[in-house]
Structures are given as C-alpha cells and as structure tokens.
Predict the structure of O-antigen ligase-related domain-containing protein.
Amino acid sequence: MRGLPDVLTLLLAGVTVAWAVLAQGSTGGWGLDGLAALGSVTVLSAVLAASVRGRWPTTHPAWTLAAAALLVWIWLSTTWGPDHWQALRWAGAWTAIVGAAVCVHGFADTPTRRRAVLGGVIATGAAALLLAGLQLRGVGVPGFAYYPGAGPALLTGPYFNPSHFSGLLIPVAALLSSALLFTRPGWFTPLLLALLVALHVADFRTDSSSIPAVLLATVLPGVVWLWRRSPRGGALLTAALLTAALGTGTYFLSPAGQAQFAARQSAIGLSNSWTRFLTGRQAVWRYGREMWAASPVTGVGVGQFVREAPRFRAEERRVGANIDRQLVNYAHNDTLQMAAETGAVGAALYWLTLLLPLTSRSGRLAALTWWSALPALAFAGLYDAHLTAIPGTAAVAFTLLGLAAQRQERASSDAAAPPVHAS
C-alpha cells in the first residue's frame, strides 16, 4: 500500500508524456492547456508520494536541483512577460515536461518501474507511428489540424508540422536502437526492429531538416556500444566519424557538393534547397539574437517569443528573405529560444540540466540512450527547437533524461537484477 502513491505518480507521468506527444505535440490550443493541467496533477501526486516516503527521492541531487532551478526560473519569468496568460500556459507546459522527468528520476527506482517507463515511451512512439501509418492510407484523426498538403507524401503523425514529427523521432530512434544493442534478445526484439524500420520509413516522408539527426540518433548507439567494449576502439571510431563529418560538411558546402545534393536530395525526401534553407534560418535566428540582446540576463519571459517578434521585424529587402513577412513563432534554435525567453540564466540552467546526467556513470539503458540522444538533439537544436518549442518532443527527451540521471550505486534492489550491459 505504501507504494501506491509512487505507482500513481509514475502512471500520471506516463499519461502526461503520452498526452504531450499525441495531443498534436501540445504546441497550442487544447493540447497545451491539457498538458499544463496534467503536469500540475502529476507534480501534486509526486509531492504526496514524497511526503509518504518522508523525503524527496533522488539519486543525483545536483541534477534534481538543476532541474528544479530551471523550472523555478521559468516560473519567475512569467512575472516579467507582458502576455501573462501565455506565460502561464507555457510555464505549465514546462512544469509537465520537467515535472515528469523529475518524477521518473525519483520514483522509477526499481528495474520493473524503469522498464515500465521506457516501455511507455516506446508505446507512445509506436502510437505516433500508427497515426503516421493511417495518414499513409489517407485516414485522418477527427479534431486534428493538419499541415497543408499533409498526407501519404508528407507525414505529420500526431503533430501538425512534419518537421516537428521528425524531431520526435530523434529520441525515439535513439531509444529503439540502444534497446536493440544493449538488451539481451527476447520476444520484444523483432518488435523493436520493426518499429525502428517503420520509424525511418515515416521519417523519410517528412521532408524535414531533422532527417539527418534521426539517422545520427540511430547510428550513435553503435559508437556507445564500442566505447563500452573497447574505449580505445571507441575513441578511434569517434575520431574517424568526426573527421568524416568534417570532410563531408566541407564537400557539401562546395559547389560540387551542392550540385550532388541538388541531384540526390529527392532520394532522401528533401525538397528544400540548402541556399533557401540557410537564408531562411539566418533570417529567423536574427530574431532570437536581437531578442536576447534586448534582455540578456532575464529574457523577455517564457511564452513571449511570438508576441515580441514583431518588435524585431526587418524589411524584406534588407535581409533577402520573406521570413519578415510571416509569423515568426520560435527561434529555430534551442539555445536561442531559451536565451530569448529566459535569458542567460535560463539557457545556462537548461544546458546544465541536459549535461549533468552524463556524470551518472550508469550502465542502464536510459543512461546509454542519453549518450546517443543528446548529441543528435543538440545537432538538430542548432537549426530547430524541438526541445524548447515543441512540448511533445521535449517531454519524451526529458523523460529519458530523468532516467539517465539516476546514479546506479543507490538502488540496492538492483543487486538481484544485473544492469543492462553490452553483450
């Protein structure tokens, strides 16, 4: 009976994450409001469960403190944001995202509970892929809003925007690939492999700049696997991959590389040219930079980017892009998004929360997954903002983050069940 509050908290955290993804990514409207409400209930349940225990459970106090400080700072920023209602809605969304992560970190403290949480994440990803599969058959979901042209040739899954759907697939791909490499084969292995294949089939139909990040998230678990088997081999492979990435990037930016890309980009599901993509991103990034410069320490307040963006609009002839004729709703860069809305303090706490789990030295599946998911998400975060502007993707990633932050030496219950290891 004493464990019931723990189980209830974990169930609510799982429902919160599933809602974040399946309610149109919870980027606005009923999805965002529902996420804020669920997050509040989850945090209240966690407080009750902690009071029953007599303490707040954590195996990594520094990470828990950083996550709490990030959430407190976000709530403080609601006091200086001019659109107070929008600020409260997004602070509520962040409460759900960070709160669910802290809950799974503290209360998923047995192997069974950790497997249940990770299974819930995989099930949520599978549900998103199922919705994408329905789109392939021309079936939509009543009540959902769809991107213009969305359908068999342009999949959005449960999201409105196909690029946002591709962003969700980054942490899901890292988890599926890691599970295949770091868990012993079982009845679930063919299912995980089938989901990973379906994930990439769907991803190549999103026409998204995040497609390379999804591929990276799928490949990186192999690098982590080699590091665990042979640190020297892992270092050599990492150096080789970085060298190859540098060479590929250099060639890609050359005239010959651009010609090759233009000739083959349709084969990987991309229609946008590099020049048009870069010009558009540079125009959008300017908003984030200038917004941050206007309020370098505190930012303009959480949820205020859309409202404040018109203040920084430039004439089209000065920037060479039509971005300044359109609605600019987020910074398309995770660091700029956090810095613009919550200032240098918020951006620093955000990155501290993301990086501290790498110090946990755990061999569990979530920790190994985070070593693959974080670089891929950080790469995509250079030109998009999946972790700071898309609550559905942030909720999935932060759930993995919360489990990854667990320090392995604490849980005595793990003694009877050996940790996941490379085999």
The two ends are 37 Å apart (CA to CA). The chain is about 65% helix and 0% strand. The CA atoms of residues 12 and 42 lie 5 Å apart. The first helix runs from residue 4 to 22.
